[in-house]
Each structure stands twice: as C-alpha cells, then as structure tokens.
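dumping these here so i dont lose them again. two proteins, back to back, each one seq then structure tokens. dont judge the mess
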Amino acid sequence: MNYSIIAACGLILTVFSAQADRFADVQIQETALGSNIYMLSGAGGNMATFVAGDEVLLIDSQYAELAEKIRSKVLQLSAGKPLSRLINTHVHGDHVGSNAALSAGVDIIAHQNVLVRLQQDGAFPTAGLPTTTFIEQLRLRMNGMTVRLDAMPASHTDGDIVVWFEEANIVHMGDLLFEGRFPFIDTSKGGSVKGYINNTRQLINMLNDTTKVIPGHGNLTDKAGVQRSLAMMEATLAIVNEFKAQGMTEQQAVDKGLGEQWKKWHWNFITEERWIKTLYHADVN
C-alpha cells in the first residue's frame, strides 16, 4: 500500500473541503432602506436589491459559493419573485462571483471594461458574462424608480460604476468607498489613486445630507462618511509625499508609519503598510 499517495489524496480532500466550507457560517443579512430597497451583506462586497413590482434587481453577487444563499434571500424579500436584473459595479471576484449561478433569465449589466476583462479570464464562466454593457451612463425605469448607472473615470479599477436610486436618494458606490477602511486601488486593473480621490470629491458634490450611501465594504453611511474617507486619503497622501520629499525609501516610509490617528483605518486586506506602498507609488503629488 502506497501510504504517500493516500496521504496526498487526504490532503487534497481536506483542501477542497476547506474551500467548500469557507462560507458555511456566512448568512446574507438585509438592511431595509425604504422604497423596497435593501442593502445586503454576507462575505465580500456589499450588495443591494430592489423589488420593483414584478422585476427584481440585484447589485453585485459576492462569491460563487454564496449563490444559493443570495438567491434565497432575494426570493424572501421579493415574496417569491425571481431575479431579473443583476448589476456589477466592477470586475472583482467578490462582486461578480455568483453571476453564472444567478444568470438564468437575468440581464447582467456592467461597464464595457468589465466584460472585456472577464472575457480575458479563462476561468470565468461564460454564463456569468455581462449581457448589457455601457461606457458612460445607463438609466433604467423600474416601477416608477429611476435607477441611474454612472460610469466613473478609472479609480478603483477601469470599469467602476455607481448606482443611484434617484427618487429614493440612495446610492451604491461599489468599491469607490471602503467605509472606515483604507481603500484597495487595483492598479493592475487600471486603478488610479488620483482618479479615486477625484471621483470621491465629485461624488461628495452629488450627495446631500440625507443620502443613504451603500459602500462596497463597510457599514451603511452618508455624505459625512464619504467626506471622512476623502479627508483620510488626502491627509495620508500628504504624509507619504512628505516622506518622499525627505528622500525616504518605500521601506523607510513604511517603518515611519502614518501615525496614531490613522491606525483605525488599517484592516486585514489593506493594511497600513500596503496603503503606504500604494501612496508611495501614487500617480499624484
């Protein structure tokens, strides 16, 4: 008996089991925002759903392993009406992962660059590809609600959109907002620190004090929450730019740190070190 082969097979099964179970305890939670609009949280990017008469809209789809839990929650909130439209705010896997599993009879809507990037990903299921794309703006009328999709200049990625529920004064900002956290700016997919900061400034001017803001990650917030994020980015960029002006290397900047004021923005994915490195190589001064 070849015990090494048995051991290897056991290890493979353990890995597959761990992958299958990584979201076993995750539940999809809803927060009612009014006008039959709900913020949904689980694992990965925040979602939203809108029950518009006989139509049901979902924004983003988290990970593939959560598809049935997402479907179940949407059916619960819609009183059994199936999903009809799915919007992807950008290309990342924690926002498009369940596309294929939820795609039957569903119009998947995204920026044209999202389709291009997903088509270049040989592992992404064809069934989950966007079926409707645009490059500037798209308006949907759903049961008296105007759902406006604004494509933004490259910032988090080169395919970011922001979704406005105009009459309800609710906006889903996708990963143009990491509420209370250092943001992820994916330069490998066209992202830009300059674009991210500029977009944040532009979006603040489009909000009012009662706008409900769904972030890509973090808690439901408002205009003041977006302003706090902008203030953090501007202040920490200034700190890192001063380090560079003093001739510090990237590692010296990391060792120096941003100071006690900004430590609470550190999280497990974009740590203080990773944020400093992002700013050190930023395309702005």
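---- next one ----
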Amino acid sequence: MLRGFYTAASGMMTQQSRQDVLSNNMANALTPGYKADQTTMRAFPEMLIERTDSKQLPVHHSVNIPNNKLIGSLNTGVYMQETIPDFGQGDLKETGMSTDLAIWNGQMPDDTGSLFYTIQNQDGGTSYTRNGNFTIDANGFLVTNSGHYVLDEGGNQIQVNNDEFNVTRNGEIQANGGVTPLGIVYHPNAAQDFTKGNNDLYNLEEDGEAPVNARNAGGVTFEVRQGMIERSNVDTTQTRTEMLQTYRNFEANQQVLKAYDKSMDMAVNQIGRLR
C-alpha cells in the first residue's frame, strides 16, 4: 500500500512541475523572441511482482514444493525528466522602431538548427538571444532592454550613436559612414547544448558544441527585418488546454492518494484494533 502512496505522490509532483512550466510559457506569451518550454516525462523502472509460497504434498514424509505465481508488473511512478525549449520561428510584428530587429529563419540544413544574436552578458562572456527588442544606451551603443551589449560578428560592441541607422536584410548595420555585420550565429542543436538564463539569454553548456557564424554555415539562409520584432512562439490556446489537462491529472492522482489514505486509516484504526 505504501508503494501506492509514493506512486500517486510522484504523479502529483510531476503534474505540479509541468503546470509551473506551462504557466511560465503563458506569462511570456507577449515577450518578444521568447521560446516556449516543453516538458518530457518518464516513468520510474517497473517492478515485476511475484507471489512465493509452498505446497505440501499429502505423503507420509511431508514435502514442501515451492509454488511461485506471477502477479504482474508494478509501476513505481513518474517524474519530469527535462525541460526543452522549442526554437521554432515566431511570427513577426511590425513596430516601426529602427532599433527593433527580427531574424526570419530561411533555409536550414536540419530541423533542429536555429539562429541567434550574440550578446555580451554581465560576466563579459558571450550569450545568445532571439529577442531583438533593442535600444541605444547613453554612450550610443546598441544594447538589449536589460542593458547587455549587442555584438558584431567579431565579438565587438556596436556603436551607432543614434537611432538613425539602417540594417540590411543580411544583417549589416549601416551607420556612421561604415558597415558593421551583426553577430548572428547558427547552432545545429541548440535545444541540447543551450541552457536558459536570465533576461531572455541562452548560455552554452561547458561541454556543448559552439555555434558558428551564420554567414559561413553551409546551407543556412536568413533575413534580418528592421522595424519588426519576433513574437513569442507560445500557442496560447494549446497551452490553456494543456494546463487544464495537467490540472485534471493532478486531481486524479490526488483522489488516488485520498483513497489510499482512507484504506490505511481503516487498516490501522478498525481492522487492527484490539477488541
């Protein structure tokens, strides 16, 4: 019976964790460039239950013969294995702001690849983002809304001085009489090698494969649209449906837990009572 408690409780904990992920997706449905998280669940190892007893033969010298009967398998619960971002393309929204930039994915050599802007994080290292809702700081540098510098393809900060600059479709900034290529990189499997950080930034794992310059990646085409932002790729209708389903699954596990608790109460306070 105690195994049933653990199985039902693990189901409730898993559904609660999944609900947290879905709620975060819904909360960021209007965040530019946000990529929805997807959850994967996995069952704990199953156990094969077998009843072992013995059978006594009716002979002069009693002989006990082992008698094993297969009952079946017992599932020991479920857990949320990992959270994986979906790097699918989001819709584009026109803003008319020259500092807003959106990447439109073109041809990719595989379905798991994705493109990113390169950003200087607060530690001075390189992070990546799809949120092109940029602005200009007091020194004339192109930065994210959280104040992180946007980098060119050489890893340098980009100074445009004001918002009177143009960005070509291939991601080259025309400002101050010069041309500066935006740092846009391609990663063939970002869901595996990138982890989510703060402020819409993604960080490369220590043992992850480094992304490459998108302009030098074979079979990769893209466009940068100025005056537009990429919307979140969260499907709000689907997310609401999944949130309701998750809530119902949590309730079902809760009812199972209550049934086990009631059975345990009867076993302890009624069947096991000394008379």
